[in-house]
Amino acid sequence: MEGTHRFSVPLHHLGAVVCFGNVLVSPALMARCAEDGRTLVLLDRVGRFKARLEGPVSGNVLLRRAQHLALSDSTKTTAIARSMVAGKIKNSRTVVLRSAREAEDEQDEQILRATAKILARGGTRLVNTGDIDVIRGIEGESARSYFGSFDSMIRQDRSSFKMDGRNRRPPRDPINALISFLYTLLLTDCIGALEGVGLDPQVGYLHSLRPGRPSLALDLMEEFRPVLADRLALTLINRRQLAIGDFVERPGGAVFLGDDGRKTVLVAYQKRKQEEIVHPLLERKIPFGLVPHVQARLLARYLRDDVESYVPFIYR
Predict the structure, then answer these.
(1) Can you say whether residue 211 is alpha, beta or left, with left for phi > 0 and alpha for psi between -120 and 50 degrees?
(2) DSSP letters along 194-212, please?
(3) Dihedrals φ, ψ of 223, to 5°?
(4) 3-class DSSP state for residue 284?
(5) Is 283 exposed, middle or buried (0-12, 13-18, 19+ CB in 10 A)?
(6) Among the listed residues 297, 43, 48, 59, the one whose alpha carbon sits nearest the alpha carbon of residue 177
(7) Average pLDDT estimate for 53-61
(8) Could you tell me which of 120, 229, 240, 98 has the C-alpha nearest to residue 176?
(9) Helix, strand, or coil (residue 66)
């Protein structure tokens, strides 16, 4: 009920504040979030990005200069893009193979294992190319194959959550609506991770530069899409934590998560970020939600020439 006090949470327990719809935020809270470096994001009721509050620009100006200079170095640009796409393909293959092992239908298993082979070939092709357009082409082909077999990873209520290819702006079916919502949350985390180490989220290497586009954040999130967003979407559906009634169809055919569905996804996403995983490079356990920050720091070290290569995150 409006005006009712639900509960209180100490501010230092919050890593970020995400507001949906017409939510009033006091100037004092906005100032405190900016001062603490806490992300404050405004989304509309269906999860579309509207604005993001950030404090003073952080980081060493020399790091940002190195980031910008890397755009003129084709060797460095392609190396970063190739590593990020390689991480995405390997993590996509991990999700596909896990679903193949869990498949209850033999045909689904065969489809998924065939997709895994296609992804493996794409990863092999990456090794021998230094052309950024070829790298983008391999990423696109791998993504089409991956999403082309996405239905075979859905074990519950497949008729309601059938994916007829990837679509967005707006999503036109429940599974795309769910994935797009998770990608919005993940992108916000990647922007925060890059800004936290002093990098400019708009200057990327895999995604072309475009005014208002957080290209580097989109680059960084490629490694995490399969394991942090797609896998969570599959879990929510296959465990029946989400049902078709959690989605709303708008005039024109656009489909979005309803209020209850968004709450379910937000809680599950935060729990997923709190799970501990072993980072393959650090060789120690860290919360999943810190992995984008670790990768942003590794990227910064590569841009400063502190290390010989950028090593993508590979989920095991």
Answers:
(1) beta
(2) HHHHT--TT--SSSPP-TT
(3) -65, -25
(4) strand
(5) exposed
(6) 48
(7) 65
(8) 229
(9) helix
Give just the sign of the alpha carbon dihedral 204, 209, 212, 218.
negative
Residue tagged 């200069």 (tokens)? 65
φ and ψ of 41, to 5 deg: -115, 135
For residue 5, the 8-state DSSP code is -
Max CA separation in the chain (angstroms): 61
Tokens 């470096």 belong to 37
CA dihedral (64, 66, 70, 71) positive or negative = positive
Give the integer Cα–Cα distance in Å for 253 and 127: 41
Joined tokens for residue 4:
């009712």
In order of start, what are the domains of the chain with their CATH numbers? Answer: 1-56 (3.100.10.20), 57-303 (1.20.120.920)
Task: Find how far residue 99's CA is from the centre of its chain.
Answer: 20
pLDDT tens-digit map of 295-304: 999 999 999 9
Q: Is the pLDDT of residue 21 over 80?
A: no
| Rounded CA separation 190/200 (Å) | 11
Q: What is the dihedral of CA 266, 267, 271, 274, to 10 degrees?
A: 60
pLDDT of residue 83: 95
How open is the CA angle 170-264-20, to the nearest 5 degrees?
55
Per-residue pLDDT reduced to its tens digit, 235-287: 999 999 998 998 888 887 888 888 899 899 999 999 999 999 988 888 889 99
- Which residues sit opposite 51 in a β-bridge? 42
CB 170 within 8 A of CB 32: no
Q: What are the tens digits of pLDDT across the range 148-179?
A: 899 999 998 888 888 877 777 788 889 999 99
Rounded to an integer, what distance in angstroms lies between the CA atom of residue 126 and that of residue 115?
17
> What does the alpha-carbon distance between residue 17 and residue 126 come to, in Å, rounded to a whole number?
38
Q: The pTM is what?
A: 0.83
